[in-house]
Amino acid sequence: MTTLSARQQRIVRLLLSTPNTTAAELATQVGVSRKTVYSDLREIVLALRDDQVTITVTPRKGITVTAKDADIQNILRKLKSEKTKLPDSDRSRERYILSELLRSQDYISIDQLAEVLFISRRVIQRNLDNLNRQLIGTDTELLRIPGRGVRIEGEEGKKRKVLFKMLSQYWDSDWRMDQSSEGWTADPAIAENPNIDSSVVNILARVVQNVSEKLGLSLSEYAIQSLVIHLAIAINRIKAGNPIGQNDDLIRNIGNERKSEAVQLAAMVEKEVNVRLPDEEIAYIQIHLISASANQVSLANQHSMIPIPERLKELLHPFGYDRDLLFGLTVHMQAAVKRLRVNAGISNPYTEDIKRNYPQAFDEALIVSDDYERTEHISMNDDEVAYVALHLEAYLERRRAIHQRVNAAIVCSTGLGSAQLLAARIRREFSDISIVKIWSLQDFQRNSLAGIDLIISTLRLPKGDIPTVTVPPVMSDSDALLVRNLVRNIEDEKSDKHAEFFRIIHGDLMWLASNTRSWQAVIQNLGDRLEQQGYADEGLTASALDRENLSFTSFDNYAIPHAQPELVREPAIAICTLAHPINWGRHKVSVVFFLAMTKKMNQQQIDSIFDDLYDIVADTNLLNALTKATDKKEVIEILKRGIE
Prior knowledge:
5-stranded mixed β-sheet
């Protein structure tokens, strides 16, 4: 195990937590190319060969992990005990540098950072550029003064928000708290972060648990995590001479809700860690308790007990909804509104991944959030919007599960006894088969077969265009295998994904090696091309610019701007490669895919296109190749290489 790098250890954790995944998904989560993932997997397989774990990589199918729970826990324990001494990736270095800058009262020179991290000044400069983009929208600033170094400028409260979000991202990936019979205890890895004291975290976890039980507070793991991290940061900053500033408006605005509990919790914390918490610190504890209570809506309630706002149904009507979505969003937004009215925002460590992987759901979440902002007088940042997007993506997944199933008709002599017996077995063992018809032979001969993908019959039927399998009413395992193989063939034939993607790639919508210096100009040019060549109506460009101002669509070195589908006449993807990377939100972008999707496209078509697009953008080498392409034919060849 000691031969594995920090990145490879993270891949192991991801594999053990998700036994069925793909190289593309791992590449996105870890931030490398699929080629690198496959290379890492070869080393991981060798490293785990003595740990009773089998990793199977099947081309075009995915990666499967087979292991017993005890063996998985044993590997996780080994990973805990084997820490990487120094950050070995841009992301981990940036997190380390941010920690040091937030902790320091003075400037830190680039030479100091390069020496400590055993890395070149050029790499440190690149990491600082990335950090500078990450701090956009946080009301803090990365100051770089020649001859002095770098430091983070901003109010104490704003710095703490940055710190809170960073530490929240450690949760469940690099460290966590474990609950035992003795209560919550912090993982030893917490000690590696200089911004909090692991011994204090253990004390705080115990105090929070004891006080919550004494006061009858039902706190979720997330609520405990948030409160413990907040208190640990506060204590560390107070001890370092960085107390929160006086804020009479904050104290006045939150009123007395949960104030008594906050005061009692603060008193216990002061006693245990010997630090005085001023009124402003107690007010923030109060906000956390209000936030926790806002989320205590029982999901066991019947849907009928939760009134669904009519405006929510109207908002979701173009997108679609089911009862689960309406109920889940109503409960979530009730809690969110209560939290946000006292400025109790929640950190979301997966915002970037949600925006990247679920753009359709995130766009709809922006619409929902905008409506709630206007009607409830609250403000929702990307973290909040991303949580809304998860509810919407879950709804899309439920729809996909319905549409992606194979529609089967069962045929027997009468359509009664034996057919029903066979249908029961099919329903029990084949979740990807939807039985849409049960016919007698006469029914089969006189009914239309439209919409039928598979016929399962107890009788021999004349050969037709629809795949047919003959089995006895009581199927054997070998009969079931026949059905399974046929279903797989049908699923493969139904998903001709690449055809959908290349159908909307057009040479007249490519702009190569552009010298454009701003993201606004890129959108303007690509949008104008789509409008002028009849792919979209006038207003598409303005719509895309408005959408980008709500939340940037840039990730790593690419961006995927898009506009309202109502303005698109014919689906298309306009492509721009840049001669020099440009600043786009928090990223330096070299390749742009302007997505023009219509309302007429069904969910399967949309999913197919995005699946191929993600295979392309997950491959850093392929994106670099696109930036060097000199003609449109070469671009097409590179895209084909990325998904085939």
